[in-house]
Amino acid sequence: MTTEPVTDATEESREFVTIYVGNQLCGIPVLKVRDVLGPQKITRVPLAPPEVAGLLNLRGRIVTAIDLRRRLGLDARPAEDKGMSVVVEQHGELYSLMVDSVGEVLNLPAAAFERNPATLDPLWRRFSEGVYRLDAGLLVVLNGDSLLDYGAKAAA
Amino acid sequence: MDDLLREFLTETAESLESLDVELVRLEQDPNDPALLSNIFRLVHTIKGTCGFLGLPRLEAVAHAGENVLGRFRDGALHVTPEAVSLILESLDTIKSILATLEQTEAEPEGDDSDLIARLNKMAEGGARPAAAAPAPRPAAKAEPAPVAPPAAEPAPKAPLIERVGGVSAVDAAVDLLFRKLLKDAELGPMFDETDLTLLQGRQVEILVSLVGGQKSGAAGELAALYSPAVERGFSDAHFDRLLGYLKESLATLEVPADAADDMLATAGTLRDVVLNKGAHGAPPKAKKARTADEAKSADAEDGKDAQKKESSVASQSVRVGVDLLENLMTMVSELVLSRNQLLQMVRKYEDSEFSAPLQRLSLITTDLQEGVMKTRMQPIGNAWSKLPRIVRDLSHELGKKIDLDMRGAETELDRQVLEMIKDPLTHMVRNSADHGVELPDERVRAGKPETGRILLNAYHEGGHIIIEIADDGRGINIDKVRAKAIASGLASESELAEMSDKQIMQFVFRAGFSTAEKVTNVSGRGVGMDVVRTNIEKIGGHVEMKSEPGRGSTFVVKIPLTLAIVSALIVASGGERFAIPQIGVDELVRVTHGSEHRIETINDTRVLRLRNRLLPLVALDEMLKLRGAGDEKPADDSADKHAGREDETCIVVARVGTSSFGIIVDQVFESEEIVVKPVTHVLRGIAIFSGNTILGDGSVIMILDPNGVAAAIGESIVADGHMSEDAQVHGESGALGERTTLLVFRAGGAEPLAVPLALVARLEEVDVAKIEEANGQPVVQYRGQLMPLVSVGAGFERAREGRQQVIVFSDGDRSMGLMVNEIVDIVEDRLKVELNSKHTGVIGTAVVAGRATEVIDAAHYLEQAFGDWFRQAGRSGRARADGRKRRQSNRILLVDDSPFFRNLLTPLLSVAGYEVTAVEGAERALELRESGQAFDAIISDIEMPGMDGFDLARTIRESGAWKDTPLLALSAYSSPDDLDRGREVGFTDYIAKLDRDALLQSLSQTLSSHRGAA
After folding, report:
1. What CA–CA distance (Å, rounded) separates B990 from B519?
2. What is the reported pTM?
3. Do A60 and B334 touch (CB under 8 A)?
4. Within 10 A of B938 (CB to CB), how many other CB atoms are there?
């Protein structure tokens, strides 16, 4: 695994951890990902925004679990599917993004990158940095900042 | 940012803070030399470092400031407030430059020449330092140069070595010098043991290099060569003589005077070397002509001392980054959690080999925890450091004299807590200075000393730190507060009339409240005290205020010593566990069927009857919406869910400020020490939670914030009665000392209802078969009349068969029957309505015989009945007009500010056959008079806000349409004086409130005698 900086847009390629949310293939920049977890015991948080599935304890640190399906406006995962989680860190806090499954790490060339299509659903547009054209389909690059940006949103 | 810059910023920030305090002290004590030199040293260091780091703007400003300070130190300039202000201004400039520096790592663009010019002007205002240095030294290089940039060399001359005459000249001069030296009776013998040839040679060498403008590396050797002489007593005085000889030699060689002087100066710099005083005598570069050497050596001295001082202080303390401490704290917290976990596990096994070592581990962990907590402790003086300057500036700005007395500055508290109270404290001090302390002449007029005093006092008390902020100013003006409260719509006059002075003062803590006449930029914006209180309560503390008009005000802040690890009660509700900080919990109450504490329900609102208070209740699972939509619990079950069941209900009684409330939970576990972790920003908006934590078993639970819960309650459950300070403020002003008799019954629900017995004519049982319908209204034939039957509330179900209980209210031969399920009791009790209810038909709730009971509004039901009745006029019975004629219907005006009493007396009087008009105040009554209404008698309450009964009587009796109308006074107070007064103002009679019989009797008597008279 190379350690090239991920932020430089003129770089040849970037690496992503691929995840499936709903039926959509998405990617999170590899350097942002701390852990990949299986199903966890989550404490519900009453009155929290609906996407916040709850809190969990990861080696002594409290991690906020965000249900990505909900966040992206998709239907809830069927109960039998346990799903997996990708743990990222943002502004010193840990978040566990709950997804359907986690794929491999892909190294994607800049040439295949496109800006968000104009017709993209506004919710997705908010969270997507752009799209990669892959043989197998499109990969939506998720923007951690906007995904986890609750700003001045008052909960409940 | 590189480490160097970062350190510079940290250190300089500290120095600047220190300087603020010191300068204020200096202003008060201008001649303290230690203070002066410390201040000078601080600024000097700042300047030096700035120069070193290549920060020209900062250096320039610091240098200018240093000059002025130097003058202070020399005694050449007096320490005046203007001078101090100017220095403070320069410090502020430095602070702002530093701020930009921190952000951008570069100095901001800007021009300080104005400030610098002013500083220099001030510095020059002092006498110039003597051209000659105080140390006995001939021809010290006089270059006073108080100008900001280091003085450049005056007009470039030819190099000294040339002017002197070259190396040969130096050689010759030294040669001559030594000859004279040896001839000197005193000096000669000192050099007996010295190899003079060697010495001379070295001396020439060194002088030549120095004169040529280079540093000589041979200084050490020279020192060594001179040392035998020094040991023999060669000292300063002798060195002077040496220089004298050199001078002579130079003169002999006809070296030009100025060159000679320069050379002598250069030679003079070798003093320390020659006299073996250590290496400080390194000669300055000829290019950089410094200010008087005296300053330099003084620096050297100071530098040495400071270094010594610093190193001794330094050896006792170590600078540690905050991050490192936080890390340490987190790790210790984890350790505590793991320890808790282990303890829990081991508890299960009574006798395990793990127990003993675990005990030890536990003790050590506790000690470690305490130790690390201590690292977070800082003296509160740190929060106070800015205050002297602020008070000083304020007193200048406002033209007042204020003395700030800070005690207990060394009292320690948690760093985090310190951060949070810094601003509130500052605000309170500003308030005291701005509003509290009066202007000097005002104070003198009041007999107080001219200088006002603000006292800050901090001390520990039982796990808390107490901070008092007291001033000896004018105190809080209650009338102003009252006026402001009314003007802001926070309370009505009548409400205020009920409050004690202490309660009124609490308005100061309300949002947007400020009695300042104008908004200064100091305070008066009205955002202050409520934010102060909120911030303090956020950290689990509270603030109280005491004030004496004319004497001063005191704020007392009480805060827990530490935030990070708290004792918390673990509870369960709705299948989830939560933690409630112990500090907010007053007690735990278990309500069972037979317990003395009970849960009552009023209109679906639960309250807890705890000893003799009513506490609002909230069910945690409801508030947190934990019972989701999928629950099989039907809606109307909820009212009974927690009340009146066989099982026990657990209630946590929490307190916020001075108000208490109860939280219903499913289960209460034990208390645990938990590590409070802040919630993620995603959840920060949920006011009910103040944090989260990991329990011993590894699970994450939320920590409840009683403040947040209280806020949530305030909105949802208790519609009108606001849970504030004092229960006495609640509800009606119908507090009586009198007892009255109530009929308690049940109708349409399990909760008891009540009606004053005075209004009830009869209790009857009616055969349901006889109940008929008329216009949708049930009626029954009763004593030859049709009596309408009214039910209380929507939930009431008439009996289907058998007999229906009815409370009959009568009026001559008109009756109304109130259908009830069950007559419970007749009770004599003090009538004090506690909660207002917006429901029609109900006046409010009173605690009757220990139970919360709704008191129904009889008038409402009577109206309902009679209204209906008259709609079926003609069916039977008399028309209203007839009915009226049957008796002399007298029109009564009832004046009483209490809606309760109006509601009570009106039916009472109507039932007795009077036509009643009720108004809520004297003004309204007089309005009626103006509009031409006339009454046969007026009954008036005495204690009313605005115009009271006595005044009303007086007004009525004075003149006007009602001059002769009989006036009856109703009052709870009937002392002989009151009676006299009543008669005096013109009352026909004076009756105790709620003495139904007396009232009716008096009325009828008065009316008949009046009629008779008329």
Report:
1. 51
2. 0.44
3. yes
4. 25
